[in-house]
Amino acid sequence: MDSLKIIRGSSDNKDFSLLVKLLDQDLLTRYGEQQTFFDQFNKLDKIKHVVVAYINDIPVGCGAIKKYRDDCIEIKRMFVKEEHRGKGIAKRLLRELEFWATELDFNIGVLETGKSQPEAISLYKNCGYSIIDNYGQYIGVENSVCMSKEF
After folding, report:
1. What is the gyration radius of the CA atoms in the chain, in angstroms?
2. Is the entire prediction scored with pTM above 0.85?
3. Of the candidates 54, 56, 59, 55, the residue with the CA atom closest to the CA atom of residue 23
C-alpha cells in the first residue's frame, strides 16, 4: 500500500470537513430523508479530537471521538473514500481513536451506525465491538445499530 499517515487534530481541520461532506452524501444516498433525523447529532463545531488518514498527502479517511460520559467516548464521523475501502484504513483510524481515548483516560467506546451500513457493522465487530441496546437519542430508532467496547 502507498504511504498511509494518520494525523490528529480538531474539527477545524479542512480535510476533515471535506471528508465529512462526502460521508454526509454517502449517508443521504443510503438513508434518504431518514438521514435528516441523524444530521442533528452530527454537528462538527464541538469535536476536539479528530483523525484524518492520508495516502501520499491526499486525505482518504477520517473519524472522531467526543466525550459521552466520564469514562466513555462516542466514536463519530468514521469514513473512508470508496476507492480506498478494503485496505484496512478504517481499522487503523479506529485503533488510533481508541488509543487517543485511552490517553485521555477513557476506557469505553460507544458508537451508532445504521442497518444500511453492513460494512461498518462488520468492521466494528471485527475490532471487538458488541451490539448493545440503543442509547441516548437512538433509543427507539429502528434503523440504528449501537455498539460498545471496553479498551
Report:
1. 14
2. yes
3. 59
Cell of 118: 453492513
- CA atoms 15, 20, 133, 130: torsion sign: negative
Q: For residue 128, is it left (φ>0), alpha (ψ between -120 and 50) or beta?
A: left
User: Looking at this protein, which amino acid is placed at residue 2?
Assistant: D
Q: pLDDT tens digit string along 31-67?
A: 767 656 555 555 556 789 999 999 999 999 999 999 9
- Grid cell 473519524 is found at 63
Please report the domains of the chain, with CATH numbers, ordered by start residue: 4-106 (3.40.630.30)
8 A C-beta contact, residue 94 and residue 63:
yes
Cell of 7: 494525523
22 SS3 class: helix
pLDDT digit string (tens) for 17-32? Answer: 999 999 988 888 877 6
The size of the chain, in residues, is 151
State the Cα–Cα distance between residues 38 and 141, nearest whole angstrom. 10
Which set of grid coordinates corresponds to residue 13? 481541520
